[in-house]
Amino acid sequence: MARQLFNFPVEAAGGGIINITKYKDSTRRQLTSTSGANGRGELVNNFTFTKQKDNADSYILVTGVMGALGMPNYPHIGMCCTIDQIGYGQTTTSSSAPGHPQGMAGGGIYYCGVDTGSNNERTTFIIQKSFKEFILNAGNHRLDIGWNANTGVRPATWLNPNSSNQSRHHQTGSHILVYEITR
Amino acid sequence: MARKLINVPDSGPSDKLVKVTTFRNNTRTNLSDSSSSVIWSAQFVKEYDANTSWILMEGMLPGTNNYSDQCGVYAMLDGANTNNDTPRHQGIHYSGANADEGWARFIMYVHRIIDNTDSTQELSAGTRTWSVGWSTRSGSSGDKPFEVWNPNASDDGRNQQYGSLMSIYEYLY
Question: Per the domain annotation, does B14 fall within a domain?
Answer without folding.
Answer: no
